[in-house]
Design a protein that fits this description.
- The structure holds 3 protein chains of 3 kinds.
- Chain A has one domain: ABC transporter involved in vitamin B12 uptake, BtuC, CATH 1.10.3470.
- Helices cover about 70% and strands about 0% of the residues of chain A.
- Chain A contains 15 helices and 2 strands.
- In chain A, strands 1-2 form a two-stranded antiparallel sheet.
- In chain A, α3 packs across α9, α3 packs antiparallel against α13 and α12 packs across α13.
- Chain B folds into 2 domains: about 160 residues, Rossmann fold (3-Layer(aba) Sandwich), CATH 3.40.50.2300; about 150 residues, Rossmann fold (3-Layer(aba) Sandwich), CATH 3.40.50.2300.
- In chain B, α2 packs across α4, α7 packs parallel to α8 and α9 packs parallel to α10.
- In chain C, strands 5-6-7-3-8-9 form a 6-stranded mixed beta sheet, with helices on both faces. A 6-stranded mixed beta sheet of chain C has the order 15-16-17-12-18-19, sandwiched between helices. A 4-stranded antiparallel beta sheet of chain C has the order 11-10-13-14.
- Chain C is globular, with a radius of gyration of 24 Å.
- Classes of the chains: A mainly alpha, B alpha/beta, C alpha/beta.
- At the A-B interface, α3, α6, α11, α13 and α14 of A face α1, α2, β7, α9 and α10 of B.
Amino acid sequence: MSNTKKMSISDIFGKLFRNQIFVPIAAMLILLIFNLIADPSFFRITLGYNSAGNPVLSGYLMTVLDCGSELAILAIGMTLVTAASGGQDISVGAGIAIAGSALLRVLCGNNTRPETLNAPIIVAFLVSVLVAMCFGAFNGCLVAFFKIQPMVATLILYTAGRSIAAWINNNELPIVSDATFSYIGGFIPGIPIPTPFFIAAACLLIIALVLKFTNLGLYTQAVGINESSSRLNGLNPTFIKWLSFVILGICVAVAALIKVSRLSSINYSVIAKDIEMDAILAVALGGNALSGGKFNMWASVMGAFVIQLLTTTLYKFNVQSDALPAYKAVVVILLVVFSSPVVREKMAQISKKMKSRKEAA
Amino acid sequence: MKKKVLAMLLASAMVFGLTACGSSAADTAEAPAATEEAATEETAEAPAAEETAEAPAASGDLIKVGIINNDPNESGYRTANDKDLKATFCEANGYDASFAYSLKNDEQITAAQKFIQDGVDYLLLSAADTSGWDSVLKDAQDAGIRVILFDRTIDADPSLYEASIVSDMAFEGENTVKWLESQGLDEYNIIHIQGVMGSAAQKGRSGALDAKVAENDNWNIVTQQTAEWNAETAQQIVQSVIDAGTPFNVIYAENDDMAKGAVAALDKANISHGVGKDVIIIGFDCNKWALQELLDQNWNFDQQCNPFQSSYINDVIQTLESGGTIAEKTIVMDEKGFDATTITAEDVEKYGI
Amino acid sequence: MKDNAVLELHNIHKSFPGVKALNGVEFTLRKGEIHALMGENGAGKSTLIKVLTGVYTKDEGEILLEGHEGPVSIKSPQDAQHVGISTVYQEITLCPNLSVAENMYIGRSDDILQNWKKMNEGAGKMLESLDIPAKPTQQLGTCSIAVQQMVAIARAVDMDCKVLILDEPTSSLDDQEVQKLFKLMRDLKERGVGIIFVTHFLDQVYEVCDRITVLRDGKFEGEYEIKDLPRVELVSKMLGKELDDLSDIKGDSEVKVISDGDIPVFEVQGLSSTSGIKPFDFHIGKGEVNGFTGLLGSGRSECVRAIFGADKVISGKVIKNGKEIKIQKPIDAMKNGIGYLPEDRKIDGIVGDLSVKDNIILALQVMKGFFKPFTKAEAYAFADEYIKLLGIKTASADTPIKSLSGGNQQKCILARWLLTHPDYLILDEPTRGIDVGTKVDIQKLVLKLASEGMSITFISSETDEMLRTCSRMVVMRDRKVVGELSGDDLNQTKIMSTIAGGEA
């Protein structure tokens, strides 16, 4: 390595191309640059006051951080489930309906429009976490113990979940009038940054600590890559797969808390509709193999924010309603193709060729 | 796009999913006791109650009706609709009613065949799909069973059914636009939040506004997006307009949920809304909580989409039982629009769903 | 091109990130010869074959083929097939759920509509002419591995190949099957097919081959007529150094046999598992090396799997130092100081996408516990220590293990278990599919570990190897222990006769 200096630039590019997180970061940069050129006001952030008189920061970037939070939280759990089981949970949207419904049920009791809260928010949240973990455990059982394909196993809750959510509240639509509850999905008085962003950051911090101070990452990947070998190394693949679904359950409950708080209410049939597809997409955009195995959590989280950035950009440019899905599809296809290992390997090769040409010159 | 493709894949897989989990949605079953109780309690409130209470049980025999509806969990509208039907078609009013729920046409057809075998007197139907009903309705006719459609029409020969009781979505749109026009603003800068594209409600409610905007220069659409009936998506759409700094003074949301989402975005940006404020808020469906917002003057207008068809159906049945004929096959229900300046607390109770 | 040559490779280069896999390799294959391609693991045999079959594209060099003007370019396996180069890999790459005939014709027909009758007839003729005991309509999966192998060769021959590459075809065959395969190879040779034969079995090379090309560290070492190259010389060419004679090993360390008074470190009584082995007894003392022997499928792997808890145990007990212990799953065995290097490296051993480092620390990490991960520094220290100790050839500790050669993968798995410092190490076929040099290394290591007090069970399908290392051998037949040999009884004839079941 005598010519370290010469190699460095193209080497760094080569490494970048091969690194998983490159694709979501590049996608984000491209979208940001596109916005910068098309309309720099995209980056404007202004400090204002909401109707309750509290300071709030607003602007497109804040919207991305705010609205992308739930997806980022779900991406954490979905990444683990994907890595361990080699499949995806398609019932997270329905799961959010259930967890949200349970949350409101505890908060409101039998009265659908209570003046005061029936229980502290934290208690209601813990109950909803418990409920969501139970449903996660149910999915996990089907996948880990009965070896049912994850998509098929979670199809059950995908179909039945929203009915269960409605049943929890006797088909009523409770509305919470307590202001503190709305802080969770909105702003805490005095803090101008949206609360969901803090919650997402906290979740990311927790998972970062968990990955650092436990073997969750190593075990999950080992099981996802080679189940039989993992077992012979003393791991319990069944338990680890099951665990990943339970963790996703916790993520679902946190996302549900934010979603329900945003409007202090719930609509069982449309809340978090199709969010499972976005969560899976976030994992794929992060360059993680949907067939399981190695994963990069941060790439998935970046993927989640890329999706939100894309959505916000499309809203900003006022794309026609019926054309919106088409635009989104085109961008998504491009992103997914670019994040595929085949293309990444090709790009690394090209940069290598450029390097050798430079050396020859 | 990706969502649609996936949704289609899922839908095809769902047939399996449903059989696997034995979801109650597919079952042809009596309503659970709990709901029935709730329904009875509500009877006093249901607008149909006053009329139907007088209806005598014709000859001491109960009239057997089979009711095929969509899943009551589908929406607040459907929940109210189901409650209303249950309240009217009860033994006290001289009916022996059986219910079947499904969002799928084939399951509904199976339920209809079962009702025909059971020998019901009337078959009440809110079809999931418009097509595929000809042969089963022919069977009903041959068996001497009379069919009444409610809420949704189907593509079948009108001779196969006695009456069709529907909402006129186009009327709802026109009525709302008429009200908006009567506000006499100098300029209308409208955020138009649409429902799921292509649904009957979306087409009817968008149509009237689109036409009006095309005709008048002082009516402008600031943005027109579908939020797919979803409150949060509506919030994001309005947020986007606020972030862009484009001025607007009307939010025309095609259902109450989306109006609620839009208002959340306004609150965040401290933009005033409601009677005499900066932005006019319009919703549809008349949820009870939405009418409450009107009463509090936070919103300006809400257009009803009437889920209470049971009194109309009851009238038709009574007429037929007493040997009369139905003059007009298609019966369009009365649907009111509520203005925040004139709405009363009684209206909220009576019309809220 | 040289006289009679069907294939010539000149100055082939191929690099991967961090590794120069091929560095100026020469190779010539003549008409109607069987040509052995020899070299240690990582010498570049697999890479060369993949270049030849279009799986990899070469960086430099040229490939000449009989009947083609100038160099040919092979960019994909389809290209290779097209110019008449066919390959039969170690792992069967056919479809077990299709019929024999379908497997022979799949992906070859230009017609969209297959003529089934014609296809079956053609396949039948080909099978008959090659004397392969299979029916065209038989489902491939129901044939033995050897027959499947032969079907794969028949498929290649039927495609009018001029060059047939056999990559480790014999590693999962028994002796009889190997002989059948050799007969087939000789038949093809008569027909003028040039065969490249890659194997680790020296005996087989000397039995069937005409010439040998030796590669070492990606470089061309030389081409030799078989009669000019004695075995010892071949081995030293492959290793690049004079080899201490294999037979020396046993001399250096006299194997220990436990005396009757000692309590065995591990003892097993009446153990049987769901895999179908009959209940068996077994014991091993401190510093002892013993082995299980028997034909393929005789149950030798199943025995050790039962001890390790890899299969579900249904009866019997395990006793450690006189005390009964419960082993229901692998982690129980690991916590009691047992390590197990499984027979099938790919399926049960490596965790392919994980790095060498993670693969090495995996077992110890699992034993240490979920909430106590090693720090990065600790993990790298362990990995580097064992990479050095066992001489694992890898670009770095972060390289995914699947990109290492078979022998080096095996060393990583060995490192994984050595790192746990087990009292009792079970090695199931640790030398399968790896080169002579590594084999010797592993045998030496086994004896060294035993001399330090580790108890080791060593299983190998090469009896020589076991004789060199084990002081006692348990003989199995039909999933049953049929004898135990030690001392003077421990010789080839006695083992054979015990396996065969006749009293010697």
